[in-house]
Task: structure prediction
Amino acid sequence: MDRRSWIRSIVTLLGVTGSAIGLHTFLSPNRPTSSRTYRVGRLDQVFSQGASTTVHLDGKPVLLVRRTEDVIAFDLTCTHAGCPLIFNAKGGRITCACHGGAFDINGKPVAGPPTVPLTRYTCDFDNGDLIVHIAGAMS
Ligand code: FES
Result:
């Protein structure tokens, strides 16, 4: 292989590699860069109005539901097209007014167009305070 052919091969290889990296970046969804931990407050104060409440953490509406043994937390954003969701405690459903979507208390889609479950966040306790971990929070 002469010098000119060798240089042409290297340039072609670099071009193909750069295009592949650019294509991968373009096609890949935004990935979370970090997560955050929120100390929401004393359990009795957080749920002073009942067994469920909505708080805003990292700019996201988050549904907190107190159960016998634990607390569950969901992002109250519809997984179909991003509309805000409403929790109906009486019916035990999380509903979306945009296209009639509904989720059960476990975040599983049960009606309408959504097929992806709600994003659920991990909760734990520290000295009586409720702690919520928002995975994928952008820093
Ligand atoms: S955005 Fe919620 S059902 Fe379409």
